[in-house]
């Protein structure tokens, strides 16, 4: 159906608050509805044979939001993992997390670690969820690890191994941001050096099969050059 497909898609899931506000509902309703889109996007990615996806769920800056909203989001993640872990295993879906782990509420962290551990042999798709994640924070944490080890000089390949993704994960080929904003908001700064960017006005809770297919179609037409002159030939 497509001349080429991304191996790794990163999603900035934006617009939950606006979705709710448009309906006169509190913002948290938008987050709850957004979880359904997460489900749908995992299934679609699996169906299209995309082996890796990364979902931006909570940024290092999102702590600035009202305490009630932050608490709701952390509880939503915990409950989502709790009620879906068995299904992930059944459906062969692997989940891992990127981002800081030192500020996440204990019960949410416990479910994150349990999910990572119990899905680690699943192989149909590998889903990364970015929680308390910031691109700058990831880079600084990597540098601090290097300094602790007494490293004096490194190269790009070595540096990459200190970032949050396991080394076997390819860099995102496509980044999709919903809800009309055309910015990166501190997501995956290192990893998106040559990622194709796709922006849609659709709000995250409304993002469905049609939007997903449109993004894949758009991607299949992009000519990737990586600084050279010819299309790269790996996918
Ligand atoms: C994205 O939706 C979800 C998170 C950042 C957690 P928003 O909550 O940012 O929704 P808008 O941008 O206010 O509409
Ligand atoms: C980016 O969305 C973070 C997530 C989707 C988790 P934001 O809504 O927080 O980004 P800004 O504030 O519009 O840049
Ligand atoms: Mg937003």
Short key terms for the protein model shown above:
binds 3-methylbut-3-enyl trihydrogen diphosphate, single chain, 7 helices, Undecaprenyl pyrophosphate synthetase, six-stranded parallel sheet, alpha/beta, binds magnesium ion, globular, about 240 residues
Account of the 3D structure:
The chain is α/β, with parallel strands linked by helices. The mean pLDDT is 97. The chain has one domain (10-219): 3-Layer(aba) Sandwich (Undecaprenyl pyrophosphate synthetase). A six-stranded parallel beta sheet has the order 3-4-2-1-5-6. It has seven helices and six strands. One 3-methylbut-3-enyl trihydrogen diphosphate is lined by residues 13-18, 58, 62, 73, 179.
Structural class: alpha/beta
Order of secondary-structure elements? EHHEHEHEHHEEH
Q: Report the total helices.
A: 7
Per DSSP E runs of 2 or more residues, the count of β-strands stands at: 6
Oligomer: single chain
CATH superfamily: Decaprenyl diphosphate synthase-like
Mean pLDDT: 97
- Work out the count of structural domains: 1
CATH architecture: 3-Layer(aba) Sandwich
> What is the CATH topology?
Undecaprenyl pyrophosphate synthetase
- Helix fraction bin: 40-55%
Summarize the structure.
This protein has helices at 16-22, 27-47, 67-90, 106-118, 135-148, 156-160, 209-221; strands at 8-12, 52-56, 93-98, 125-130, 174-177, 196-199. The protein is α/β, with parallel strands linked by helices.
């Amino acid at each position: 159906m497509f001349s080429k497909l991304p191996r790794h898609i990163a999603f900035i899931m934006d617009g939950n608050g606006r979705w709710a506000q448009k309906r006169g509902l509190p913002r948290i309703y938008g987050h709850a509805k957004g979880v359904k889109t997460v489900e749908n996007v995992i299934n679609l990615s699996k169906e299209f044979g995309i082996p890796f996806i990364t979902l931006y769920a909570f940024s290092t800056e999102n702590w600035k939001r009202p305490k009630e909203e932050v608490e709701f989001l952390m509880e939503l993640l915990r409950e989502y993992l709790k009620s879906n872990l068995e299904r992930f295993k059944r459906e062969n879906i692997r989940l891992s997390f990127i981002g800081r782990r030192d500020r996440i509420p204990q019960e949410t962290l416990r479910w994150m670690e349990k999910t990572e551990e119990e899905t680690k042999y699943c192989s149909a798709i590998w889903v990364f969820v970015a929680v308390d994640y910031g691109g700058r924070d990831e880079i600084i944490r990597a540098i601090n690890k290097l300094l602790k080890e007494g490293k004096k000089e490194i190269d790009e390949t070595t540096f990459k191994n200190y970032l949050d993704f396991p080394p076997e994960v390819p860099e995102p080929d496509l980044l999709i941001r919903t809800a009309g904003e055309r910015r990166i908001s501190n997501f995956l700064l290192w990893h998106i050096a040559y990622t194709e960017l796709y922006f849609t006005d659709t709000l995250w809770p409304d993002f469905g099969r049609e939007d997903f297919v449109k993004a894949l179609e758009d991607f299949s037409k992009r000519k990737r050059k990586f600084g050279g002159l010819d299309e790269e030939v790996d996918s």
